[in-house]
Give the backbone structure.
Amino acid sequence: MTDKQSDKTDVDHKDPATRVLSLISHKIKTPLSIINGYAEAILSQTKPGELSSFASKALLDINKQGEKLSVLVDKLVRFSSVSSLAKDAVKKDMMKVRPVFSSVSGKCVMRDDSLNIMSSDMTIRFQGPAIEIKCDPDTEIYADKALVSIAVEELMDNAVKFNNNAPKKIRLFYYEEEDRDVLAVADNGVGIKEEHINKIFEKFYQIDDFFTGQIEGWGLGLALVKRIMSLHGGTISVRSQYGVGTIISLRFPKHGALQKQA
Ligand SMILES: Nc1ncnc2c1ncn2[C@@H]1O[C@H](COP(=O)(O)OP(=O)(O)OP(=O)(O)O)[C@@H](O)[C@H]1O
Ligand SMILES: [Mg+2]
């Protein structure tokens, strides 16, 4: 197992590059939503046979690729807005962990269309990820619920995306350390080689062993999670074994622990 703890924070709000990202993504969003909207409207309003098969296929592709681009742009917007958030803008409160685990995993399962399996009777069967949540319903941590949801969603998305198993097994769990609450996401996916472990929290870093540039996403998710942890005075760490799986843990100081440290 390779184990890397990332304690250093990456305070880059007001960073000019982040401002440019924010500007670009907002400029792209409006025309993109118009393109997607028209493609969807034509598809939903035309009667069968009205369009040639070429035109139907082209529209479906425009719609699908447009949606993908839209997800990428939303991610840029999310990244730039969290990056420019100041520490005192974080709305920390006691929040329940289990509902976050449940709603985020529901969302990620819906998005995972990679495992449509042809069964023996030639029907397509969806074999979604097997998700296990281990967290008491009353467990609470002191954190900003919206930001925690974003962080868990990014980890969960990775656990689903970098995983070719059937079924994909993903575990979301909570445990306590002396003065910290730990949320973790474990998967049985492709794992991460030791030489990449130090770099995966860098902005735009993606492991692309074949240099194809084809991995979906920006390589921003973990940089975003690291920023969220820094805003909470917490840390992110990764343990991974190539070919076996990965566990990413988020450590939040318990309520009052930060004041005690100061
Ligand atoms: N659970 C995981 N298993 C295997 N590899 C992972 C896992 N999580 C992250 N990685 C590796 O770390 C890289 C960086 O992750 P990160 O979430 O920042 O970017 P991304 O998922 O590629 O893109 P984005 O999050 O912007 O959509 C990934 O491209 C992947 O190579
Ligand atoms: Mg990601």
User: Anything to note?
Assistant: Residues 4-13 have pLDDT under 50 and may be disordered.
